[in-house]
């Protein structure tokens, strides 16, 4: 049965945003002129072409969230950063996991990572300054997410929708998120724009939804004409994210948040050396540390104990968990202006990154022996690349820019599973997969042909990848057979075209391919539990996932209206489904066998609308409306069943008012319902259970900024102003409709946010 909270179907209104945009376009076209590039600050991005370029000139769907918007809208983490971007989300379940037991990892991975147009996890490539963010790792009751990040270090966030493998290789199956950190030059100027030798920023923030508080400080300096430096340090403390649940009992009936204490610290150091106008070297050191401790009251058995004597003996009396994660990065990024026959510019990148995570859990049982689970996961990555570009002016008003290069990366992955009182036949310590080296090398090339109206961008990349087992120690035995290595290759093409119909109006289209190589734990992951008669078997014959995406769009840049409309259709093959049931009756003699396999083929299609309309001056200030709407549908083309991972439609509509000294914004967000016909329950819960659905919801947020001085800003906000009770689909996937604790998965109610920023 579906969840009892229901709303009417919103799909009949799906075309309203397009109709509204058409009216704005007609009004703007009748009285407006194309944007004056000299008078309007346009966003420069690096993700669309691997070099700095105006985002408006790229034939792709690209979103940018800059530091000014993040500050004004009180964005505390990556989940906040994408809340107004269409067909984009960051799953985050409540901390209601269990120390032992299969598929009980809810909330362990925090902000799990980005989901773009219905696909997420390791199918979205995440970069920090071009260096890959560690993969997520989920096995049984353990889940390590990808939130090794701090918003305090970021200058902007770039999102490239659709396959990005033609430029960046594996993992760019669904899209790319590139997080760009600050540079010294961002702070070495006064409020009037004059160059300074010392500058920086101090900010403090408080959020009511998790009772969080943070402090960040940045200082940058100009040591000489050729040397600049920057140092940023930040700290953040918070508790569990609140819910709209009202059952506060210390047992499995609980729907309020479990007691939780989070502590995050981050450090960024940069040194920029530019000895002359022909070369620039950037050395970066980054470290992000996160700690969390949770008192899992929601795991405790209700008192008095019921059930059979065996069930009473295994009842949980107390359960607690601690987790830590660390990411350390050191990179050298150099650019040379050489002006030879082969290239005008050469860029070299060399980086090393170490990420480690630990999850420690203790479980106090009524009569059975207590359990302790101590799990480690670590990635050490080396990344190197050389890229050349050559710009040439041709006849008849055409110009060409050729970009080509070589990439190499190598990641050593390891895990360790230990503790007290393992389930037979396991003996601690052990490894769920063997120590493995994932490596890849690639050649890529992209050519941009441009004239006054046309931009044509073909590209191709050839990747070689390998998953090499380094040692069997700790894995075989106890695994039944040795782990095996795997290797392969992939070709990723792309073609983008943009045509300027008239000044301020452009049509664009692109076709792109993507792929994702199997990971170490998908190839060789092994688990055996005699008590539950379950075996998870490795699969060394996995093949890469592949995607092909076609997108068509319209882009307008007028003085009043700036908008993008895109329709897309993506086809995905050889999708990897983890822990699919293969055989077995679930007995000691014939256990149930699960295995990760290539099985799914899928199609995801939809459209997106986003932009801003300037209403002009009225009542002493300027009025404007930022807007976005995204809708997607997905289907497993082999079975005809819906693709449950696709998010429901989302509308964001704002009203801005700006003066010289203060600004304010009201934001209405509408989340469409996720209905039973849009869900394949067999994909999310075990039969005969049925996946819960979520009703539609409309929320209202308010933000304001007071510029007390040119260099002092006070930001305030009230989130969920109407105190609406609602759910996010990505947070409840895997929750049965019969659950009595659905309120534990609700979003926070009304809460305030406050920050103070001082530049110097």
From TrEMBL:
GO molecular function: heme transmembrane transporter activity; siderophore uptake transmembrane transporter activity
Compositional bias segments (type: Basic and acidic residues): 245-260
PROSITE patterns documented for this protein: PROKAR_LIPOPROTEIN, TONB_DEPENDENT_REC_3
Any one Pfam family match given in the protein's UniProt record, by short name: TonB_dep_Rec_b-barrel
Residue ranges of every copy of the TonB-dependent receptor-like beta-barrel domain listed in the record: 318-721
Subcellular location: Cell outer membrane
Topology with respect to the bilayer: Multi-pass membrane protein
Family annotation (InterPro entries): Beta-barrel_TonB (IPR000531), Beta-barrel_TonB_sf (IPR036942), Plug_dom (IPR012910), Plug_dom_sf (IPR037066), TonB-dep_rcpt-like (IPR039426), TonB_haem/Hb_rcpt (IPR011276), TonB_Hb/transfer/lactofer_rcpt (IPR010949)
UniProt record, GO biological process: siderophore transmembrane transport
Keywords for this protein: Cell outer membrane, Membrane, Receptor, Signal, TonB box, Transmembrane, Transmembrane beta strand, Transport
Gene3D superfamilies registered for this protein in UniProt: TonB-dependent receptor, beta-barrel domain (2.40.170.20), TonB-dependent receptor, plug domain (2.170.130.10)
Chief location of this protein within or outside the cell: membrane
Lineage top rank: taxon: Bacteria
UniProt keyword Ubl conjugation present: no
Residues annotated as domain TonB-dependent receptor plug: 57-175
Signal peptide: 1-30
Keyword Signal part of the UniProt annotation: yes
GO cellular component: cell outer membrane
Positions of the UniProt region annotated as Disordered: 240-260
Protein family: Belongs to the TonB-dependent receptor family.
Name the UniProt record assigns to this protein: Hemoglobin/transferrin/lactoferrin receptor protein
Organism whose genome encodes this protein: Simplicispira metamorpha
């Amino acid at each position: 049965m579906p969840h009892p909270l229901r709303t009417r179907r919103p799909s009949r209104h799906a075309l309203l945003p397009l109709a509204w945009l058409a009216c704005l376009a007609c009004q703007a076209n009748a009285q407006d002129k194309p944007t004056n590039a000299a008078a309007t600050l346009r966003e420069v991005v690096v993700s669309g072409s691997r070099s700095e370029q105006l985002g408006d000139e790229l034939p792709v769907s690209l979103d940018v969230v800059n530091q000014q918007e993040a500050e004004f809208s009180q964005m505390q983490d990556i989940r906040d950063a994408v809340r107004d971007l269409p067909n984009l989300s960051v799953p985050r379940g409540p901390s209601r996991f269990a120390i032992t037991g299969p598929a009980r990892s809810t909330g362990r991975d925090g902000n799990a990572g980005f989901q773009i147009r219905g696909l997420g996890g390791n199918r979205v490539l995440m970069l920090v300054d071009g260096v890959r963010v560690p993969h997520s790792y989920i096995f049984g009751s353990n889940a390590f997410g990808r939130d090794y990040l701090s918003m305090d270090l970021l200058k902007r966030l770039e999102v490239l929708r659709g396959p990005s493998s033609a430029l960046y290789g594996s993992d760019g199956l669904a899209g790319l998120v590139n997080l760009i950190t600050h540079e010294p030059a961002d702070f070495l100027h006064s409020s009037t724009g004059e160059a300074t030798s010392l500058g920086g920023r101090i900010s403090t923030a408080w959020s009511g939804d998790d009772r969080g508080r943070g402090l960040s400080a940045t200082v940058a300096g100009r040591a000489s004409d050729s040397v600049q430096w920057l140092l940023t340090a930040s700290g953040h403390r918070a508790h569990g994210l609140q819910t709209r649940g009202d059952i506060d009992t210390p047992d499995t009936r609980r729907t309020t948040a479990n007691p939780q204490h989070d502590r995050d610290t981050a450090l960024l150091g940069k040194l920029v050396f530019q000895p002359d106008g022909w070369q620039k070297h950037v050395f970066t050191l980054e470290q992000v540390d996160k700690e969390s401790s949770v008192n899992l009251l929601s795991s405790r058995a209700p008192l008095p104990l019921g059930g059979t004597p065996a069930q009473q003996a295994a009842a949980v009396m107390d359960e607690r968990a601690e987790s830590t994660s660390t990411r350390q990065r050191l990179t050298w990024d150099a650019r040379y202006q050489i002006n030879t026959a082969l290239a005008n510019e050469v860029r070299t990148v060399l980086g090393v990154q170490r990420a480690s995570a630990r999850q420690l859990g203790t479980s106090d049982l009524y009569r059975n022996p207590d359990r302790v689970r101590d799990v480690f996961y670590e990635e050490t990555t080396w990344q190197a690349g050389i890229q050349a570009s050559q710009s040439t002016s041709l006849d008849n008003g055409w110009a060409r820019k050729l970009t080509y290069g070589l990439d190499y990366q190598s990641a050593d992955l390891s895990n360790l599973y230990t503790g007290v009182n393992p389930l037979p036949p396991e003996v601690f310590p052990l490894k769920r997969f063997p120590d493995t080296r994932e490596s890849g090398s690639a050649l890529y090339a992209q050519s941009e042909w441009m004239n006054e109206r046309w931009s044509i961008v073909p590209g191709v990349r050839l990747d070689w990848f390998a998953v090499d087992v380094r040692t069997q120690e700790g894995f075989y035995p106890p695994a039944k057979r040795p782990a095996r290595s795997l290797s392969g290759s992939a070709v990723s093409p792309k073609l983008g075209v943009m045509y300027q119909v008239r000044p301020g109006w452009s049509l664009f289209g692109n076709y792109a391919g993507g792929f994702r190589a199997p990971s170490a734990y998908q190839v060789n992951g092994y688990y055996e539990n005699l008590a539950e008669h379950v075996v998870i078997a490795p699969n060394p014959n996995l093949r890469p996932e592949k995607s092909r995406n076609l997108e068509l769009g319209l882009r307008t840049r007028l003085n009043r209206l700036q908008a993008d409309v895109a329709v897309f259709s993506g086809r995905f093959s050889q999708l990897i489904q983890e822990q699919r049931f293969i055989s077995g009756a679930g007995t000691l003699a014939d256990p149930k066998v699960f295995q990760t396999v290539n099985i799914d083929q899928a199609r995801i299609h939809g459209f997106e609308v986003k932009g801003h309309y300037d209403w002009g001056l009225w009542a002493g200030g300027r009025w404007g409306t930022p807007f976005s709407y995204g809708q997607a549908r997905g289907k497993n083309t082999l079975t005809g069943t819906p693709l449950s991972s696709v998010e429901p439609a989302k509308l964001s509509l704002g009203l801005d008012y700006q003066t010289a000294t203060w600004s304010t914004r009201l934001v209405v967000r509408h989340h469409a319902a996720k209905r039973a016909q849009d869900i394949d329950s067999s994909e999310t819960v075990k039969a005969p259970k049925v996946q819960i659905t979520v009703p539609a919801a409309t929320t209202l947020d308010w933000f304001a900024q007071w510029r007390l001085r040119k260099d002092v800003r006070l930001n305030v906000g009230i989130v969920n102003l109407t105190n609406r009770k609602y759910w996010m689909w990505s947070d409840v996937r895997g929750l049965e409709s019969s659950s009595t604790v659905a309120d534990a998965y609700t979003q926070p109610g009304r809460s305030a946010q406050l920050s103070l920023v001082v530049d110097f």
